[in-house]
Write a structure and sequence with these properties.
This is CDP-alcohol phosphatidyltransferase family protein. By secondary structure, the protein is mainly α. It has a single domain, classed as CDP-alcohol phosphotransferase transmembrane (TM) domain (Four Helix Bundle (Hemerythrin (Met), subunit A), Up-down Bundle). The chain is 75% helix and 2% strand. The protein has a two-stranded antiparallel sheet. Strand 1 (196-198) and strand 2 (202-204) form a beta hairpin. The longest helix is centred in the middle third of the chain and has 42 residues, at 132-173.
């Protein structure tokens, strides 16, 4: 079977993704996947190892500290991320994904960030003697860890909110059987950081947030049309700012500080949305119980 670029787009592209991935990675990764899937027997795990090797090569370049090496490190980091996106696409396209592959992908991502951070800040500290670089390194590692841990916890909270709505509807109807998942689910086209439950009628757990920020639905629809998540400074954009934009521009310190500030701002926005969602949840549960 010969795969086409249309197959790759329809079967492997996420409904919503980071804008860096949508604009700067997928156009290249998708085309590389077509050739790799059709002409080679390379497995997703082998691509994961290749991405990891390029990531370590990027760290080695960063350690050299000179601008030409920083450029080489930035290019290798971007190529490493392209391969990192390819392994999942090929796994989904061919149905060859494994639990081990998912674990390797996650662990290698964290090691790559750690190695590149240490190499980048140590190289710059060795050359400049500026104490800001070790502090910058600690900040990058902490924020990378914070974003991924926070994402897991937010997903856990969203699942619990959906379970509570499902349970409340079951109790109100007197039917102990759980509602079919097809009737109660997150809209697959919604942003990952939003909570939207669909039942016989839509139960919107973002109602209060939308009412406070009337411009948000229009922005969200524009981003949605371009496959972009509303979380515009996610862990991916943060990494790319630190390991690509900073080294390429020779402005590692200001770019990293600016990216860190934006990442924290968007994380705070997610927490605020979650707070408002908890109020919406209480309101929805009260309505369901009052109608029983």
């Amino acid at each position: 079977m010969k795969f086409t670029f249309h197959d790759v787009r329809s079967q492997t592209y996420k409904a919503r993704d980071a804008w860096w991935t949508v604009f700067l990675v997928d156009p290249l990764a998708g085309r590389l996947v077509v050739g790799t899937a059709n002409r080679t027997s390379v497995t997703p795990n082998q691509i994961t190892w290749g991405a990891f090797a390029l990531g370590l090569g990027s760290a080695w370049c960063f350690l050299r500290a000179e601008w030409s090496w920083l450029v080489a490190g930035a290019v290798l980091y971007h190529l490493s991320f392209v391969l990192d996106c390819m392994d999942g696409k090929i796994a989904r396209l061919k149905g060859t994904g494994t639990v081990l592959g998912g674990w390797l992908d996650y662990v290698f991502d964290r090691i790559r960030v750690l190695a590149c951070t240490i190499a980048l800040v140590w190289g710059q500290y060795r050359v400049t003697g500026d104490d800001v670089y070790p502090l910058l390194g600690i900040t990058v590692v902490f924020l990378d860890m914070l974003r991924y841990v926070d994402a897991l916890q937010i997903a856990k909270v969203r699942r619990e909110m959906r379970r509570r709505v499902r349970r409340a509807y079951c109790e109100s109807s007197g039917d102990p059987a759980p509602l079919p998942r097809v009737l109660l689910r997150e809209d697959p086209d919604d942003d990952p950081d939003e909570i939207r439950v669909r039942l016989a009628a839509a139960v919107d757990l973002q109602e209060e947030f939308r009412s406070r920020f009337s411009w948000y639905p229009r922005l969200r629809e524009w981003l949605r049309a371009h496959r972009i998540r509303t979380h515009l400074m996610s862990g991916i954009e943060f990494q790319m700012a630190v390991f690509i934009v900073g080294p390429l521009t020779g402005a590692i310190v200001p770019v990293t500080i600016g990216a860190a500030a934006l990442l924290l701002l968007f994380e705070a926005a997610i927490m605020y949305k979650l707070l408002l969602s908890s109020r919406d949840l209480s309101r929805v549960l009260a309505v369901i119980r009052a109608s029983s």
